[in-house]
Amino acid sequence: MIFKAAPLFAVASLAFSVGVSAQSAAPNFPNKPITLVVSQAAGSATDIMARVLGQKLGEALGTSVIIDNKPGAGGLLGTELVAKAPADGYTLMIASVSTHGVNPVLYKTKKYDAIKDFSPIGMTAITANVIAVPPNSPYKTLKDLLADAKAKPGKISYGSSGNGSSQHLASEYLKSQAGGVFMLHVPYRGATPGLTALMSSEIDWMMPAVPSSMQFVKNGKLRALAVTSAKRQPELPDVPAVAETIPGFEVNTWYGLVGPAGLSPAVVKRLNDGVAKALSDKAVRDKLATSGLAVQTSTPEELTAYMRAELTRWAKVAEFSKITLD
């Protein structure tokens, strides 16, 4: 069964007018610090994205951006907080495949609508996941892993950052595209505990995001079998794409900036221009690149369309894998 990836817009397109028009349209915004909510713990890929963007966004807008980590309930806690915040532009969040792609289709009792309760501002970055194994693993390639899993149904274990997490669904997607192979899922309370377990060989493999795992791949604490992007990652050029083994396979971990529903068009424009200016800075782009994050900007409308496509895609994966969380 094939679940198509949401189409991306032109990568790193910065074709927005920066500054003047938006500033004149919203002359008094911002006039106090902006809180940027991160629904994951410090050190996560979402947190890295927020901190790199936050500093330059503050400079572009002439204010300070305060990072507020609100992890909990798989990202629901921070997301619900922003959905209920005043629509004045001073409470924003880094949306991701978890908060606005996976969680909405798994948590039926969630207290927010991923589309209706948010004002999209723009995409910020995109990255891939890595299919990683311990350094002493017998698996040298993805083909090795899948062949052994098919030969030993239920004997090969894989970890994730939690039951129903984006890592979990991405792994289920891989299993479905590999012919429905059965493997044992071991959920952890976040990516870090899962990576620790992987490095100590408690599990056979895991599919963490590039930013949270690249350092371990480069220092030899993990071995990367493949990346989930359509093509190889610039920071890991020797690691093949899954698509080289399973044609057409692609999973992206994406990040965008959103605020509560009801933000005025002028404030959205001001923020979108601020993001474009911040992400056009070479130092910012280079810093994100070293963490495995590629700059990916968009209009608010493009971000909305992308989120809708992601919701459709992951709903199909969840249904196929029979995953529900409440």
Tag the structure with descriptive keywords.
D-Maltodextrin-Binding Protein, domain 2; 3-stranded parallel sheet; 39% helix; 11 helices; alpha/beta; 326 residues; 6-stranded mixed sheet
Helix fraction by DSSP (H/I, runs of at least 4): 25-40%
Please indicate the count of domains. Answer: 2
Rounded to an integer in angstroms, the radius of gyration calculated over CA atoms is: 19 Å
Question: What's the level 1 CATH class of the largest domain?
Answer: Alpha Beta
Judged by helices, strands and strand pairing, the structural class is alpha/beta
Question: How are the strands of the largest sheet arranged?
Answer: 2-1-3-10-4-11
Architecture of the largest domain, according to CATH? 3-Layer(aba) Sandwich
Largest sheet: 6 strands, mixed
CATH structural fold name of the largest domain: D-Maltodextrin-Binding Protein, domain 2
Shape: globular
The H/E string reads: HEHEHEHEEHEHEHEHEEHHEH
Strand content: 15-25%
CATH superfamily of the largest domain: Bordetella uptake gene, domain 1
The separation of the N and C termini measures: 25 Å
Number of strands: 11
Low-confidence stretches: 10-24
What is the mean predicted local confidence, pLDDT?
Answer: 90
Number of helices: 11
